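task queued by scheduler; priority normal; single chain, no ligands, no partner chains; default sampling; output format set to structure tokens
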Amino acid sequence: MDFLVTMTTHVPQGTTEDTVAEVRQREAAHSHKLAERGSLRRLWRPPLQPGEWRTLGLFTADDADEVESVLASMPLRIWRSDEVIPLQPHPNDPNLAGIGLGRERLIAMTIAVPDGTASSAVDDKLSREAQRARELSGQGHLRRLWALPAEEPVRRTLGLWNARDPNELDNILKSLPLYPWMTVTTTELSPHASDPATLKCGVAELRPPVPRMILVSLSWALKMSRGQVLCGATAVTRAGWASSALAATNEYSGSRESCNGTSTGLRDLQIQRRIQWQQ
């Protein structure tokens, strides 16, 4: 079962910066362990006011007691209050992993069927909504979808959506058959340094046409003309060039927003290696 947790941290007045830094470091390490266990799925930063420290987390647990145990194990819990929302499975959930190419948003939808609407009309809209959800997930826009607690006849959903900009998102939402019956609340999301989806971004295996010696220039996102993007500082498995590629990426200490091939601020390392491709 999935849970959306709003984690708000209030550091006590008089706490030293060194103490805060030490707790944050332990929090990051523990978050990585929780991700490896499968308890922590995602982390985001919601919009914040100056001085606010708040994080949104997607957790998986068998029940509310287990998710509370997970939250209580986190080092920042000593200064934190957590608001937990249980998320129920939704039949239209595409369950897409990763981040996608645009900006992520959590969108809560409240769907109220107008009084007097025939049941056949409701069924028709629900059927077309499911079809449109499949299309949008195939385009990478709808990443996840859950049902929220609600009282009949109202339906409530929470979706993780991806779009380049507000205009694209607006067009996507208006294309939904149920849109005329919806009230929509959107939460803009920013990347979190400990987000498991970023940390676990896989390295695509590159397959050149023939074994050959090539000269490549390595940057934070390693780009090959005939392959996909490799995300830096991630394990590389191609035996012939793993050590060179990984060593080069580790020399770059800059940051990136995401590990999806659209990293910002790419800077060439000006490091070149002669690499032997292995079939």
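post-processing summary
- The chain is about 25% helix and 30% strand.
- The CA atoms of residues 2 and 60 lie 4 Å apart.
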